[in-house]
Amino acid sequence: MAEDTRRVAFFDIENTLASVRASADATDIQDLAAYPDATSVLEDLRSDGVHLGILFDRGSIPEAHINAALDAAGLLSFFDRQLILYGPKNSMLLFEQAALAAKNGAAGSPRLLFVGEDATERSFARLAGFLVAPHPDLARVVLSRLSPLRYLRVRIDPAEADGADWRSLLREKPLVPLHAAVRHRSPSSDASVDLYAVADAVTALELDDLGFFVDRLGDDDEPLTTDLYLLRDDQQSESGFGAAIGNSFSSFIDDSAARRVLSSTEEGLFVAMPAGRSVESHHFAGARHGHNLKLQASPMLLAAPADGDGPSGAVAPATWHAQTESGLSSDAPRLSDAPRLTPQEGELIEYQITTERIGDEVDRYTGARPASGNVDIRSRHIHHPDNNSTTRALLDDLTASAAGRLTARTHRFIHEGRRYENVEAVLSGSGLPGVVLVTAHMDSTAARQPGYRARVDPAPGADDDGSGIAGVLCAVRAILALEAAEADMPRREVRFVFFNAEEHGLVGSHAYALDQARLGTDIVAVLQMDMIGYDVEQPRNFELHAGFTPSVDVQARSIRLAELIAATTQQISPSLPTPQLYPGSDGEGDPAEHRSDHYSFQLQGYAACLACEDFFAGPGRTSSNPEPNPNYHLPADRIINSVYARDIARVATAAAWISATR
């Protein structure tokens, strides 16, 4: 009997084919928008004669509602109805059912493919006999070539490229970029870059012939059932070369784990984490803020260099350049020439963002008192059941405070085989294009505690990032009050977003930012508050981080946003000093680059800035010593300085309002 040539590709929906927003009660699809790039993939596969199906866990949402949302988004017509299956993908069961549906009376066994972003789901598909692809852009090559996928490090030196557009060459290949490390940059030339990516072995050979230097990392097909992480060994970095002080040996010597480490660089260890294994098991000794990063698809890394415009052509509203104490911008005008709040606007922000309200919100989200009714939040860790309680409490708070003026909903994503939710509240725009985001992360951890058990032990995270949660909730009240008082003022859309799984490598914010980039959303400013509550010693400092070495343009626009925040400090929180701005004026880098959720947006080409307490050294050699929270990632993180957090929250809120209205 001749071999059957029928080919069937099954796709997950959310974060693979479309952006999905669920209603606050999780019983309906509020919005489903197809990604244009994914639609192109479906068209190409169908033209190749590939049958298309869906495998999706709909949860408590009725099947008819999912189908209607797919139809409205223009996706349903791509798929054979008998190949649309709904159910959990936490075992082989749904994949086995899909294999039976795909056979459909054909002689022999069809070639099956599952396309999904989660390594755990892909591992179950592999066990059921499927080929798998971690991204739609790799679907055709996996089905047709049957060539193994590899993690690659592509080394680019623009001087050796002799002026060739290396990004364009890579965009023409079936290659998914994950991470870019800038090795060095001269004032007169582009930076040398190490680009980490996933591609098949044939593509790697083609890149060899084009003159790229390509390192194959790990084994054949390792990207199928693993996720790639960058784990920063801050202890080793601080001890210096030649001192045997670090975490690699102690963390990976047992259980044949050494093979997971694919490379060590000045950034840290690149580790392939297998399905079923959590990055939680590698919380390094001496780790500082943002010590791990999950490397996920980031197509903007291959975008053509920008000419100063944002991702969809809109310039960030803070287009002036300021002369600051750190010297970030050398041209006039000075900070005093920045857009300013009116006296009424300043009074409204001060009235809504108070010491008492900041403290009250922190208490509610750290278990010091009930969040609502009899709901106590002892931990916001993603493995703890109270993480879901946090999601529900935030939705209730946003719904209650908005009086119907906000649209509160969840943005869903998959991580480590489980569904998690970011929480989003949208204040519609009126008269001005673009979107402004005010953000914090909602999860917590206490993994520095010896013997910590994430599923049962407390992780109050008052500073990290209960302080940011409180800041954003107070910003909601303030901006709603400003909007009511100035109803006729043209305004951009404002979103208040709480990201989940930040502690596992910026997972939730990356899913959200990539989602928006694929939809072409015009985000003009992202203001992230992460750890704004610890301040004990004098002098009283706080930090603004805007560094992004992969793109001079993105960094410049992020710096303009940081300068705007700095300018609002003098007006709305005069008891705060002028913030410490990173990167410094002496060529010093930004120690918080890719260490908080603002980085996820910079990675997609958006201007973004992190406001935080005095956590990092610098900027410059003459700065005072930092004041990192000694209770960072410990159960003892239970108390914040509410006056200090209040002042930073006011600054961020003022900058968000100016960005939305000026």
Automatic annotation (TrEMBL):
Residues 575-595 are annotated as: Disordered. InterPro entries: HAD-like_sf, HAD_sf, M28_fam, Peptidase_M28. Residues 422-645 form the Peptidase M28 domain. It holds the Pfam family Peptidase_M28. It comes from the Bacteria. Gene3D superfamilies: HAD superfamily/HAD-like, Zn peptidases. PANTHER family: METALLOPEPTIDASE M28 FAMILY MEMBER (PTHR12147), PEPTIDASE M28 DOMAIN-CONTAINING PROTEIN (PTHR12147:SF26). This is M28 family peptidase. It comes from Streptomyces durbertensis.
